[in-house]
């Protein structure tokens, strides 16, 4: 079920006070889309506040309106006194500590581009063909709500598109994405500034984390799968953000022979986050789905309630079997 963007727009018109939220491990698409929508709703005379289920990385500081974003900490007081909640870039179940509130009966509007999202809430729109949720939010603001795009909205939406397309390098980059990007630049988005903050404005500790992660880089005997591991000890007191996932997993993915790149991240002693990036028609969402996760064909993830080493053994064995089967099918065996 994809739902209807017009129904989403109608639901937004019907309410006046909104909480906007997104998935844990926030990334440029989720945060940029949320901030742009917040600014648009405020421009339309409505009240809106963004609440992140997880802390935001330093990369987000350049986004217009980021200073108004709250981070969930168990108690949000008046921030929860709203008419409706807009969950974007994920299904409500991925909103961390906010999940109980989202299940309390508050009206939910769901906007997403992940094909594994079945659609939730009073109104929803799921468009897997969209390169980023930012693409959908652009359509909602400009075409359905007909709210004039401001420079701050454009800057946030451009960051959303840039983040989920790898600054327009990934296979999800198409003419529609480039058209929207050009419109956002016309409205004041700065491509150079966005790229600088997303990729070239890191603290020493963040770059040192990449160095430590690269020491864990491994590759399968066939060379078609490579993985990298993040132990909790590597992070220390530092918060993780979704942008760091892209910073780290791109290294195993850039190896010429690799069809499936995997990142294992130890969340707790018995909880492991697994991220997948693929190419050559390897469906990462299918693999993630086997472990209760989901995502896109070439980018997906899951969380396993098991220790890091146990999770690695299970995932690597499963992934190797799928890659071998895919290779046999392609060779006609």
Describe the model.
The protein is an alpha/beta fold and 333 residues long. Strand 11 (294-295) and strand 12 (299-304) form a beta hairpin. The chain is built from twelve helices and twelve strands. Helix 2 packs antiparallel against helix 5 and helix 8 packs parallel to helix 10. The protein is globular, with a radius of gyration of 20 Å. The protein has two domains: 5-199, inorganic pyrophosphatase (n-terminal core); 204-330, Diaminopimelate Epimerase, Chain A, domain 1 (Roll). A six-stranded parallel beta sheet has the order 3-2-1-4-5-6, covered by helices on one side. The chain has a six-stranded mixed beta sheet with strand order 7-8-9-10-12-11, with helices on both faces.
Keywords:
alpha/beta, 2 domains, single chain, 6-stranded mixed beta sheet, 333 residues, Diaminopimelate Epimerase, Chain A, domain 1, inorganic pyrophosphatase (n-terminal core), 12 strands, 6-stranded parallel beta sheet, 12 helices
Q: H/E element string? A: HEHEEEHEEHHHHHEEHHEEHEEH
Give the spatial strand order of the biggest sheet.
3-2-1-4-5-6
Tally of DSSP β-strands: 12
CATH superfamily label of the largest domain: inorganic pyrophosphatase (n-terminal core)
């Amino acid at each position: 079920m994809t739902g209807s963007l017009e129904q989403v727009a109608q639901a937004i018109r019907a309410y006046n006070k909104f909480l906007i939220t997104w998935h844990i491990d926030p990334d440029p698409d989720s945060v940029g889309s949320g901030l742009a929508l917040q600014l648009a709703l405020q421009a339309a005379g409505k009240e809106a506040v963004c609440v992140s289920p997880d802390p935001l990385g330093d990369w987000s500081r350049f986004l217009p309106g980021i200073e108004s974003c709250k981070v969930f900490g168990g108690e949000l007081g008046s921030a929860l006194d709203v008419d409706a909640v807009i969950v974007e870039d994920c299904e409500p179940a991925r909103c961390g500590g906010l999940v109980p509130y989202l299940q309390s009966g508050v009206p939910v509007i769901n906007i997403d581009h992940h094909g594994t999202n079945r659609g939730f809430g009073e109104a929803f729109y799921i468009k897997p063909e969209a390169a980023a949720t930012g693409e959908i939010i652009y359509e909602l603001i400009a075409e359905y709500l007909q709210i004039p795009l401001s420079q701050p909205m454009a800057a946030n939406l451009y960051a959303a598109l840039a983040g989920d397309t790898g600054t327009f390098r990934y296979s999800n980059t198409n003419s529609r994405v480039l058209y929207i990007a050009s419109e956002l630049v016309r409205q004041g988005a700065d491509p150079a500034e966005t790229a600088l903050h997303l990729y070239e404005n890191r603290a020493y500790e963040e770059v040192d984390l990449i160095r430590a992660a690269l020491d864990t880089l491994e590759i399968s005997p066939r060379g078609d799968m490579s993985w990298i591991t993040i132990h909790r000890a590597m992070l220390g007191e530092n918060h993780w953000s979704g942008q760091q996932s892209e910073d780290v997993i791109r290294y195993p993915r850039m190896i010429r022979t690799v069809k499936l790149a995997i990142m294992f991240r130890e969340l707790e002693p018995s909880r492991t986050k697994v991220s997948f990036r693929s190419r050559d028609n390897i469906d990462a969402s299918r693999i993630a789905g086997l472990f209760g996760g989901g995502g896109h064909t070439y980018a997906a993830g899951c969380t396993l309630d098991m220790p890091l080493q146990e999770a690695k053994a299970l995932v690597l064995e499963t992934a190797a079997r799928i890659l071998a089967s895919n290779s046999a099918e392609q060779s006609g065996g």
